[in-house]
Amino acid sequence: MLFMVIERFRDNDMLPVYEQVRERGRSLPDGLEYVDSWIEANFSRCFQLMRCDDPRLIQEWILGWRGCGATFEVVPVATSKETQAVVAAYLESSPGNRRPNSNPTRRN
Fold this sequence. Notes:
Elements: E1 2-9, H1 15-24, E2 33-39, E3 45-51, H2 56-63, E4 70-77, H3 80-91
Antiparallel strand pairs: 1-3, 1-4, 2-3
């Protein structure tokens, strides 16, 4: 599974986090993979793409960063290619682009 981890730096100050990375590395538990990251131009947020099969690994990783001046939001995401595969069935379906085998009068 892919997760977008949105890290917010207190007072737009990323230096405490960067110091901790320099001293300890990313401190990833086994099974949690760092894919890539992007920093907002004003230094207020970092967007990190992470991969793992068990979301508890992200929780463990976040707990290791307590006290560094950052907060974390974790958002499960899918790649565009994966999403296109899901959407394709709707695009190729019957009139009105309904889901295949769906009952147009039934609401979920």
